[in-house]
Amino acid sequence: MNMNELNEPTASGSTRKIGPVILDLNNISLSFGGVKALTDISFNVRQHEIRAIIGPNGAGKSSMLNVINGVYRPQQGEIVLRGEHRKNMDCYSAAKAGIARTFQNIALFKGMTVLDNIMTGRNLKMKSNFLMQALYWGPARREEMAHREKAEEIIDFLEIQAIRKTPVGRLPYGLQKRVELGRALAAEPDILLLDEPMAGMNVEEKQDMCRFILDVNDQFGTTIVLIEHDMGVVMDISDRVVVLDYGKKIGDGTPDEVRSNQNVINAYLGVAH
Ligand SMILES: Nc1ncnc2c1ncn2[C@@H]1O[C@H](COP(=O)(O)OP(=O)(O)OP(=O)(O)O)[C@@H](O)[C@H]1O
């Protein structure tokens, strides 16, 4: 079998094509003073897969996402993105390369409407400069309309039409998380990094968020790397799972492989259940 192209059935029964490796993290080590957040971590992400990072609190999961999108610069290791080797990323290059991100704690403009927050996700795609926008001059106006159309598409996709003009700060937490997903989607990312997309949600909100993540992956072909504490969710929707503990990798594989990995059971699942 060609390991670069795996056809894997999803829960819905459709056959998704998992492509070649597009992101490779090699021997990444990151420390903050004396604190070793990540020690010699290697794993890869294949095109179109849903890849989860799990582990107990403080295991290094968020640090790993921060290395991938250039917030943190590892002291050792390399990042290979679509075959291009780098010692580290920076946020701008990551965004330009099609990597978008949501955060553990919602990072939206609370006083702005849902629509305006989603529009901020289009920033990198806007070509017209500030002066042209200020004067609302021809091309800037056309561009604004095109971006607006894209934002409206995302609003329809996430089923948040009814709250498009509501200031984000007035929305319940679960909907704010959905808007944050919308803002990340507005960048039309190839790789979407989700940091605890379901944290603090009730069962119904979690089900909705799961459905949207699966739909984004299926309909837009977006590769997804997610951190999530809810084991049921992780095992249900992920193609492969990497497990961190105290900054070290202790497991990597399909949900079934990870579930039966004794190191993982000892360090994490055993404690959680
Ligand atoms: N900016 C920072 N400065 C200092 N230490 C940091 C920083 N970011 C992370 N750390 C430390 O690195 C370690 C890993 O933290 P990280 O947030 O990556 O873990 P996590 O697995 O995402 O945890 P959680 O599930 O609680 O969010 C922790 O010991 C944390 O205190």
Automatic annotation (TrEMBL):
Membrane-crossing segments per the record: none
Matches recorded under Gene3D superfamilies: P-loop containing nucleotide triphosphate hydrolases (3.40.50.300)
Pfam families associated with the record: ABC_tran, BCA_ABC_TP_C
Keywords tagged on the record: ATP-binding, Cell membrane, Membrane, Nucleotide-binding, Transport
Domain ABC transporter stretches: 23-271
Molecular function terms from GO: ATP binding; ATP hydrolysis activity
GO cellular component terms given for this protein: plasma membrane
Taxonomy, superkingdom: Bacteria
Protein name according to UniProt: ABC transporter ATP-binding protein
Source organism per UniProt: Massilia violaceinigra
